[in-house]
Write a structure and sequence with these properties.
The chain is α+β, with helices and mostly antiparallel strands. The protein folds into 3 domains: about 290 residues, no CATH class; about 50 residues; about 60 residues, no CATH class. Helices cover about 40% and strands about 15% of the residues. The protein contains 12 helices and 12 strands. The protein has a 3-stranded antiparallel β-sheet. A 3-stranded antiparallel β-sheet has the order 6-7-8, with no helix packed on it. β1 and β2 form a beta hairpin. α2 crosses α4, α2 packs parallel to α8 and α6 runs antiparallel to α8.
């Protein structure tokens, strides 16, 4: 049974099991202060829509990809029961999505390995990173690396665990032990974005965006002012009154109210904060629904999406997870691999043209193509054959002559 539940424990200063450097305690105390005056933590950063979308995108896409295991040296699938059903309550997608959320926000993912009496791993339980401290002790025969984890459980007790007990997937770091929190490193940018959002809310709230004012030479009481406003709105408001001419008497004037240039420029600057968040998480802005300075053509967006998978999603998030799963959860003769072909391939017409060309020149077999389409291989050896294009046969050979064993064909005899 795991020592750790699924839900984050509320931390308090009175709990000695929680270190003062814990992210949850910093969150309780206010998080990391930024120069903008906004306090930023892993939890509070999610209040910004761009951060929420970035985290949800990376974690959701990564966890939803098929995760297969293969026998080394072959193309044979050998899926593991542990990865198919790793937790008594959570689905595989839910478990790995939570692990990716932890990595994106805290820079580290920790999963407890639950073993049966024979030492076989039978369950995986995620641990919130703010419960864990990582360090090194003097190496021993039983602990050759010296890496240990100080972990606080649901009841405040602390436990010392090792790599035999914990699957640790660190992000980018500088000490070889843990990854650093992107949110903490980018606290200034996130804090500025949250401050800008709050300021924009105040801008709308204080009424700077009203359409205009009616000004009269006569002094009006509250009732008269409301009557004038209602009469004016009835005359010019609504689609039916569009382009109608209004008549004002008694010296009344209508003066439109425009937004000050400084406020307009401020609202435009908020778009830059979205780009900053996208840059921090390595997500193309168009995936955050920001296309102001991006192409809106389908092929252009497709290339950007494929570039994101190639240069960020795969090397930053998928490959480290594959290697950790292979190293710590699988037998030595097997390895884990995410199926990213579905994200990289283009439209069906383009794929068909590419597959046909590769099949015709003998580069792909039928089963190679089926593997790229996440389809099972053709039973037997029928799908493993490669075609030989006759128009590319060696000069002087007859590829239709099955009795000719040499690539050069029959030679003239004296």
């Amino acid at each position: 049974m795991s020592l750790f539940g699924l839900f984050e424990r509320r931390s308090s200063p009175e709990n000695p099991a929680v270190p003062l450097t814990s992210a949850s305690l910093l969150d309780w105390m206010g998080g990391t202060a930024s120069d903008s005056g906004v306090t930023v933590s892993e939890a509070s950063s999610l209040h910004m829509p761009a951060v929420w979308r970035s985290v949800a995108l990376i974690a959701g896409v990564s966890a939803a990809l098929p995760l297969h295991t293969y026998r080394r040296g072959t193309k044979d699938r050998a899926d593991e029961a542990l990865l198919d059903d790793p937790h008594p309550e959570m689905t595989p997608l839910e478990l790995w999505r939570l692990a990716f959320v932890h990595r994106v926000l805290w820079g580290n993912a920790y999963v407890q390995k639950i073993r049966n009496g024979g030492g076989q791993i039978v369950q995986l339980w995620p641990i919130t990173p703010d419960r864990v401290q990582v360090g090194r002790v003097r190496p021993t025969a039983d602990l050759p690396t010296g890496k240990v984890f100080q972990v606080a459980d649901d009841w405040g007790a602390r436990h010392t665990l090792t790599t035999r007990d914990i699957l640790h997937i660190p992000g980018l770091g500088y000490d070889g032990l843990t990854g650093v929190s992107p949110v903490r490193l980018a606290a200034q940018g996130i804090g500025l974005a949250q401050a800008a959002e709050a300021t924009a809310g105040a801008l709308f709230g204080r009424g700077n965006l009203m359409g205009g004012v009616l000004q009269t030479e006569q002094r009006l009481n509250a009732t008269q002012a409301e009557q004038l406003k209602a009469a004016w709105q009835a005359k010019v408001g609504g689609l039916a009154n569009a382009q109608q001419v209004a008549v004002l008497d008694s010296g009344a004037q209508y003066k439109p109210v425009t937004m000050p240039n400084t406020d307009a420029q401020f609202l435009e600057s908020r778009q830059f904060q979205v780009v900053e968040v996208a840059r921090m998480f390595g997500v193309p802005p168009f995936l955050l629904m920001s296309t102001e300075k991006s192409t809106s053509w389908g092929t252009g967006l497709e290339q950007q999406a494929q570039g994101w998978v190639t240069f960020d999603l795969a090397p930053t998030w998928l490959a480290p997870t594959e290697q950790r799963i292979t190293k710590e959860l699988l037998p030595a003769d097997r390895y884990a691999k995410y199926a990213v072909q579905g994200l990289l391939r283009g439209d069906s017409s383009g794929r068909a043209t590419f597959y046909r060309a590769m099949r015709d020149i003998g580069a792909f077999s039928a089963n190679d193509i089926r593997a790229l389409e996440d389809l099972p291989p053709i039973p037997g050896d029928e799908g493993n054959g490669y075609l030989q294009p006759t128009f590319m046969a060696p000069l002087g050979s007859d590829p239709l002559d099955t009795d000719d064993p040499s690539p050069g064909g029959d030679e003239d005899e004296d």
